[in-house]
């Protein structure tokens, strides 16, 4: 039947052995096209370093710094690219900033999804590439704080998290979370569990996927808003492949 719900096989467990690991090897640019891309990266990094170092973003027209979450988004989000490109000097100065300046104790609300994919994901990728404990320690600290998002009655994450206070809530403009956001964090939380050996991160994120699979759908499609209190989609909400339904 087209309306039949897919069976959820809870008997298959993927075992992860952190001792079986081969560090990826990147050799840097090998041709003119790649060298041009690397130079473009260096150009952007130099501009960011000169005008907005430590801030989230650089505004390219005004040359002014801007902050969204005050977590050095550009540094953390770009560092794995620098590593792949073989830019050791860039990687080391970014790593040093993370070591000395990246803290999660500020009394400030951040978007759960964006911080997960950009900061948590960035830290975990750099740990995967280098096996440097610094990145994993920072990721665990951040992951512990982001777990507040799962404190809703349904387990569907709230959209906003105060990292310093370890509290979470729905956005001021709505009671709902974005469907794309709550179902696009499973990769990072799974990797955090497997790298740290603590299963709570993966279990919380996997439970969201389980719930989404069990909810009624329209031709297999779902609305873009879901209520973290009830665990149900917003009735008659938009269904789209665009924003809030994309990733």
Task: Give a structural overview.
With about 250 residues, this protein is mainly α. It folds into 2 domains: about 30-100, no CATH class; about 105-245, Glycosyltransferase, CATH 1.50.10. Helices cover about 45% and strands about 5% of the residues. The protein contains 8 helices and 7 strands; from the N terminus they run αββααβααβββαααβ. The protein has a 3-stranded antiparallel sheet. Strand 4 (about 160) and strand 5 form a beta hairpin. Helix 2 runs parallel beside helix 4. The chain is globular, with a radius of gyration of 20 Å.
- Main sheet properties: 3 strands, antiparallel
Helical fraction equals 40-55%
Question: What's the CATH architecture name of the largest domain?
Answer: Alpha/alpha barrel
CATH class of the largest domain: Mainly Alpha
- Strand sequence of the main sheet, in spatial order? 3-4-5
SSE series: HEEHHEHHEEEHHHE
Write down the Rg: 20 Å
Outline type? globular
The average pLDDT is: 90
- Judged by helices, strands and strand pairing, the structural class is mainly alpha
Low-confidence stretches: 1-14
By oligomeric state, this entry counts as single chain
* Percent of sequence in beta strands: 5-15%
Terminal residue distance:
27 Å
Task: Count up the domains.
Answer: 2
At CATH level 3, the topology of the largest domain is Glycosyltransferase
> What is the tally of helical segments?
8
EC number: 3.2.1.-
Protein name: alpha-1,2-Mannosidase
GO biological process, one term: carbohydrate metabolic process
InterPro entries: 6hp_glycosidase-like_sf, Glyco_hydro_47, Glycosyl_Hydrolase_47, Seven-hairpin_glycosidases
